C-alpha cells in the first residue's frame, strides 16, 4: 500500500461528458503529480502541484484541469470527453519536488463509450 | 530533452533464471535521478529504487540489483533467481532538477516468469 488514495477505481462514461478524479496524497507529502497511461502513449506526465500551487505542466489538454486544495488532496477534471481519453490515470505524491521518489496510487481506469 | 529507452519490450524466462532489464537514458543535466518502477498485473505502480547522478555505486536489495554506469548512460536492473511473482511490467524513469521534476518513463519491459 503506497499510502496514496485514488477514487474512483473505475469510471465509465460517454463522449462529451465531464468527470472528476480524486487523489489523496501520502501523509506529509506536499507534491502531487498526475500521469496518464495509455497503450499508444505509455506513461505521460500531465501536471504537478506543490503545496497548493501549480508547479509544472506536461502535455495536458486544455479540456483537462486540476487543482490542489488546502488539505493537499487533488482533483483532475476531464471535460468534453473523447474516446481517446480512455486510459489509466495515476496520481503520485512525494515529500518535495526535487528528485524524490514518487509514490503512486492504484489509478483510476476511465473508459469512454 | 530527457528521454528513456527500454529497448527490450518482452522477456520470458523460466523460474530461477537470472534476468537483466536494460535502461538507457538521455539528459543534458548534470544532476538527475533515475528510478525503477514495477507494475504487476493488478495495475498499480510500485517504486523500487532511486539513484542520483552522483552515486554510481551498484546497489543490491535481496534478489534485485542495479548497475548504474554514467559512461554509457545506462541503469540496468537484474533479478537473480527469478520467481513467478516477478512477472510484471518494469519501467525505468528519469527526473531532472529544475522547475519540472516530472518522471519521464520508458515504454516498459514486460517480464514473464514461467514456472
Give the SSE string of chain A. Answer: EEEEEEEEEEE
Beta fraction of chain B: over 45%
Any idea what the radius of gyration of chain B is?
A: 14 Å
Q: What's the average pLDDT of chain B? A: 95
Supply Rg of chain A: 13 Å
- Secondary-structure-based class of chain B equals mainly beta
Q: Tell me the fraction of residues in β-strands of chain A, as a range.
A: over 45%
- Oligomeric state, counting identical vs distinct chains: heterodimer
Regions with little confidence, pLDDT below 50 for 5+ residues of chain B: none
Identify the biggest protein-protein contact and residues per side: A-B, 26 and 25 residues
According to DSSP, the number of beta strands of chain A is 11
Q: Please bin the fraction of helical residues of chain B.
A: under 10%
Give start-end ranges of low-pLDDT stretches of chain A. Answer: none
Order of helices and strands of chain B: EEEEEEEEEEEE
Task: Choose one word for the global shape of chain B.
Answer: globular
Number of strand segments of chain B: 12
What's the end-to-end separation of chain B, in Å? 41 Å
Let me know the largest β-sheet of chain A. Answer: 7 strands, mixed
Question: Can you walk me through this structure?
Answer:
The complex is a heterodimer of chains A (about 110) and B (about 120). By secondary structure, chain A is an all-beta fold. Chain A is about 0% helix and about 55% strand. Chain A has no helices and 11 strands. In chain A, strands 2, 4, 5, 6, 9, 10 and 11 form a 7-stranded mixed β-sheet that branches. In chain A, strand 4 (about 30-40) and strand 5 (about 40-50) form a beta hairpin. Chain A is globular, with a radius of gyration of 13 Å. Chain A starts with a strand and ends with a strand. Chain B is an all-beta fold. In chain B, about 0% of the residues lie in helices and about 55% in strands. In chain B, the strands form 3 sheets. In chain B, strands 2, 5, 6, 10, 11 and 12 form a 6-stranded mixed β-sheet that branches. In chain B, strands 3-9-8-7 form a 4-stranded antiparallel β-sheet, with no helix packed on it. In chain B, strand 5 and strand 6 form a beta hairpin. The termini of chain B are far apart. The mean pLDDT of chain B is about 95. The interface of A and B includes residues 103 and 107 of A.
Amino acid at each position: 500500500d503506497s499510502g496514496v488514495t485514488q477514487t474512483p477505481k473505475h469510471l465509465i462514461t460517454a463522449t462529451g461528458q465531464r468527470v472528476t478524479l480524486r487523489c489523496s496524497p501520502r501523509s506529509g507529502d506536499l507534491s502531487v503529480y498526475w500521469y496518464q497511461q495509455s497503450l499508444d502513449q505509455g506513461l505521460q506526465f500531465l501536471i504537478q502541484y506543490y503545496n497548493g500551487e501549480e508547479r509544472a505542466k506536461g502535455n495536458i489538454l486544455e479540456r483537462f484541469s486540476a487543482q490542489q486544495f488546502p488539505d493537499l488532496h487533488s482533483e483532475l477534471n476531464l471535460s468534453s470527453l473523447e474516446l481517446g481519453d480512455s486510459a489509466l490515470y495515476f496520481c503520485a505524491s512525494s515529500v518535495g519536488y526535487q528528485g524524490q521518489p514518487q509514490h503512486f496510487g492504484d489509478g483510476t481506469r476511465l473508459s469512454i463509450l | 530533452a530527457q528521454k528513456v529507452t527500454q529497448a527490450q519490450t518482452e522477456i520470458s524466462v523460466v523460474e530461477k533464471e537470472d534476468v537483466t532489464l536494460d535502461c538507457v537514458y538521455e539528459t543534458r543535466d548534470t544532476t538527475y535521478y533515475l528510478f525503477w518502477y514495477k507494475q504487476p498485473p493488478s495495475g498499480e505502480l510500485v517504486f523500487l529504487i532511486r539513484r542520483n547522478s552522483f552515486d554510481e555505486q551498484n546497489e543490491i536489495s535481496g534478489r534485485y540489483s542495479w548497475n548504474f554506469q554514467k559512461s554509457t548512460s545506462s541503469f540496468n536492473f537484474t533479478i537473480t533467481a527469478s520467481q513467478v511473482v516477478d512477472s510484471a511490467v518494469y519501467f525505468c524513469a528519469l527526473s531532472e532538477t529544475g522547475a519540472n521534476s516530472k518522471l519521464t518513463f520508458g515504454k516498459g519491459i514486460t517480464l514473464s516468469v514461467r514456472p
